[in-house]
Structure formats: C-alpha cells, structure tokens
Amino acid sequence: MGRTFLGLDKDGTPVTLSADAPLSLRQAVLVYDGEAKTYTLLPGSSQELCYLGDTALLEPATKVVLVKDGMVAVPRGQGAIADYANVHMRLAQLPGAYVAAELHTHPTALAIFLGSYGGKRDEHVVAVDVSRVKAAETVAASSEHMGADDAFGEQHEPEAKTSKSLLESAAERFDWVDLRGFAPHASAREAGQATTAISLGVWHARQRHCPTCGAPTEPALGGWAQRCTSEADGKRLLFPRVEPAVITAIVDHEDRLLLQHNSAWRNTGLYSVSAGFVEAGENLEHACRREAKEEVGIDIGELKYLGSQPWPFPASLMMAFKGVANTTDVRVDGDETLQARWVTRDEYMNELVAGRMEAPGKATIARYMIEEWLGHDLP
What is the mean pLDDT of residues 299-306? Predict the structure, then answer.
C-alpha cells in the first residue's frame, strides 16, 4: 500500500516508489540498450541523462557536436581557414556512445538535443556544451583506457598520458571557431545546429538562477528549457528570452543606399545599414523609424519586410526591413554613429575596390540586405 511499481532495475529487482520518499529518491532515468533492445530503470535526475527526448545517446545513429564559450568545435586544422574565402568547414562529430558515459561523471556538461533527421541513417544530433568542464590533473603513464583516443583513430605511445577524459580534453583535441567564422563556410543544416547550440549554451551559462525566486535552475526538456528547483515556486519551467532587434536598409527615391559607420566597430572601413533593439511597448516598424531618426536624422516612410536571422550575441533575433527615406539630409548623432553617406551602386563597388569601405561579414543578414539592393552577390 502507498507504493507504485515502476519497473525492474538492471539486476531484475522490482523498483517501487513511496509517495513520502524524499524528492531525490523519486527521480529515475530510463536507459535503452540498443544492442540488447532492453530498457533499464536507474536512479538519477535529468542532469544524468543518457536519454534526451526520445533519443538515446547510445544509439549508433546519434552524433554529438561540441560547443564551448560561444564557439563550436571543428576538426583540427580547420580553425586556420576560417578567414579564407570559398572553403568548406564542418562540425567535429563524436559518436553518442562515447559521450553518454561521460555525462554521468561530468554533471557540469550540458547536453542539448538538436533534432532527428530521418532518412536511411535516421540520424540524431546532440550538442554538448563543455564550457564548465574542468580538466583533471596529470597522472602516471598507463596503457589502459585508450578508448577516447582510439575513437578518432589516433594511436599514441603510452608515455606521457593524462587523466583527462574525452570532454576534458576537448579544448586541445579540436579547433574552436565562433559563429561568424563558421557559418559562412558551413552547410545550412550545420550552421543552424551551431546557432541553436550556441544560443542555448549561452543562455544556460548566463541564467543559473530562477529570475522570479532566485533558486538554482537545472536543464529541462533536452536543454531547451530550465526548471526552477524551488518547490515553493512550483518548480516552474523557464524558457530562453529572445531580444528583438531591427535592421533597416534605407534607400531614397533615387534608389541610393544609406551606409553608416558606428563607433562600436573597430574596423574603420566597415560600413553597414541601420540597426538597433526594439524597446518595450514598441512595434517593429516604429523601431526602424526611431533608430533611423536617432542615428542619422532620416525620416522613413514605407517599410518592407525582408527576413530575419537569429543572432546569438548573446540572444538577438534580427528582423530586416527595407525603408524608403522621406528626407535625405544626413545628421549623424556623433555618439553611436560617426559617419553616414548615400551611395549609388557604382559608387559603392568603387569604394569596395579601392579599399575605402568594407562590407559586412558573410554570416550577417546585413550583407544579404546590401546584396538584395545591389542585385548581385558581393565578392
């Protein structure tokens, strides 16, 4: 009486739950063994998951990508080509089975389920944020436990070996690049995976306590949410907050484009379009018009929506517009915006060729907006 049958543990012993048991004893993890095709009930919490959503890390089709401090891991050597044009980059991938066991021993690692892609391989992708994983100290050389290195086909002599696990050694094993360096050279799928993983990783790193009651939080829903740990607060679910921002390509009635250089940009040759955050109680159209008036003194009339781009620096969503200027007298504020000028298409290309102007990076929606006005891709 007063107990609930949950299942069998790994030894076949019935597992029951008492209604008055402490909370820590009323949590369990269901683990699936793909080879044996069996489920095992183990004590633990969601932070010890070998299971994310409906996807077991032990499944052969599960791949793991790594993020750290707002950067993504790429194969060794690829970090050096991030600044080159016309090169391809990819995310470093680990078999899920190699990472599953380490999530038990590294509770500070954050696992994020990114999705399943179906097809013949029925691939699942999980991101693991290792920003808070600390490296262990060096120990005596040993020829045992070579699995982590063997997984990548790297054969090492058992001379100087450390106690670092796979996640602990990730910082040295891979190259790390930020999203601006990775996205222009990646496939659309992997660029999206990197953006999502970095966005969620940064959110978890910045919000470690419930904003309502101050209690510690823990990851939930495969890393896409957090749960407040306070019983008094109802253990509420918390979701990432997105900071809306507008970015506007301003053209006049002669179809010239207004480009500006902002004080926050170290590159003195960088010119881009107007942008800023949406303020409380403000709609997107008003934000476009307010930013243009504040930064360059231009009144905008008609606005046309162009598209959007997630921008996890740290949590923005850029919404792009094209606006037609009602006035053309440029007056920069001298604080946020230092210079601004109207350019024709020929003038802009001449400025780029002469090196007097530089275009926004290939990973930015600002570059797409300028190309949309130009009518062709930038070199």
Answer: 98
Which structural domain range is residue 277 located in? 243-374
Residue 180 host element (H or E): helix 179-182
Residues 57 and 35 in one domain: no
Please indicate, yes or no, whether residues 188 and 325 belong to a single structural domain of this protein: no
Looking at the structure, tell me whether residues 40 and 98 fall in a common domain: no
Same domain, 167 and 88: yes
The percent of residues above 70 in pLDDT, for the chain, comes to: 77
Cβ atoms 235, 228 nearer than 8 A: yes
Same domain, 258 and 129: no
Distance of CA 306 to the CA centre of its chain: 23
Taking the model in full, what pTM does it have?
0.75
Taking the CA atoms of residue 161, residue 163, residue 165 and residue 170 in that order, the dihedral angle to the nearest 10 degrees is -60
What pLDDT is recorded for position 145? 41
- Whether residues 25 and 60 share a domain: the answer is no
| 88-119 confidence digits (pLDDT tens) | 999 999 998 888 878 878 889 999 999 888 76
Beta strands in 69-211 (DSSP E): 71-74, 94-95, 110-116, 124-129, 175-178
State yes or no: pLDDT of 270 exceeds 70: yes
Residues 337, 341: Cα–Cα separation, whole Å: 11
**99 within some domain:** yes
Residues 295 and 247 sit within 8 Å (Cβ to Cβ): no
Of 25-39, 247-261, 267-281, 337-351, the least confident:
25-39
Phi-psi region for residue 367, left (φ > 0), alpha (ψ -120 to 50) or beta? alpha
The rounded distance, in Å, linking the Cα atoms of 39 and 342 is 66
